[in-house]
Amino acid sequence: MKNSVKTLDQESLYRLAIRYVERYATSRKKLADYLHRKIREREWQDDAPPAIEQLIERFVDLGYIDDALYAQSKAASLTRRGYGARRVSQALYQAGINEEDGREAFQISETNKWAAADKFARKRRIGCYAESEQDADTCRKQLQAFLRAGHDFDLASRFVFARPGEEITAED
After folding, report:
1. Band of pLDDT at residue 1, cut at 50, 70 and 90
2. Buried b (16+ CB within 10 A) or exposed e, 144-172
3. Under a CB-based contact definition with an 8 Å cutoff, are residues 13 and 45 in contact?
4. Using an 8 Å Cβ cutoff, are 82 and 123 in contact?
5. Distance of alpha carbon 100 from alpha carbon 110, whole angstroms
C-alpha cells in the first residue's frame, strides 16, 4: 500500500504554521525554514506561489512571533545551561535574529558570563570542581571544551587551571 502525502495549499500551510508556533517558541527565519521544508516534502498544489512572507508578517502583527523575545529567552536558557556569549551569539545567528533584536539578548549573556562559566565548570567537574589535580593533556581538553562552549580564553583558563577546592570569584 502506497503512502500518499497530501499536497499543500495556502490554507493547509496556514494550519501548519499555526500548529508550529503553538508548539515551539520560534523566530521568523525558523518558521520560514520549516514552511519551506514542508513545501519541499509535500509539494505545492495552488497556482499562486506560497505566501510565506505574508503569513509570517501576519503572525508578527498578531504577536505569535517576536524575534526580540525569542532571542532573550534563548540567551537566558543557554546562559543558564553554562554556555558563553559567543555560543549564544552563534545560536541567535542560526535562528536568523538580527542585531537589533539580539542586542538585549547579548547583554544577558555578557552580564551572566561568569555564572555561565561557573555552571559549565561545575557540570563538567573542571578546575576547582574537580576531585583531583588534572594532567596537562586533560587541562588542554577542558580548555578546548570551555572555548567550544563560547567562553573567552581568560575566563576559561581561570577555571581550568584552578586547583581542586580553590575558590574562584568573579572579577568586575
Report:
1. very low
2. ebbbebbbeeebbbbbbebeeeeebeeee
3. no
4. yes
5. 16
Interval 7-23: pLDDT, tens: 888 999 999 999 999 99
Residue 17's nearest CA partner among 1, 41, 33 is 33
Contact 8, 45 (CB under 8 A): yes
Q: What angle, rounded to 10 degrees, do the helices at 113-124 and 67-80 form?
A: 40
Query: Cell numbers at residue 1, please?
Result: 500500500
Taking phi first (over 0 means left), then psi (-120 to 50 degrees means alpha), and beta for anything else, what does residue 82 get? Answer: left
**Angle at which helices 99-111 and 67-80 pack, to 10 degrees?**
20
Query: Percentage of the chain surpassing pLDDT 90?
Result: 80
What are the Cα distances from residue 89, in Å, to 20, 58, 67, 70, 158?
A: 24, 27, 14, 13, 22
Q: What are the backbone dihedrals phi and psi of residue 44, each rounded to the nearest 5 degrees, phi first?
A: -105, 130
Q: 9, 2, 15, 82: which is closest to 51 by C-alpha?
A: 9
So where are the chain's domains? 10-62, 67-111, 114-160
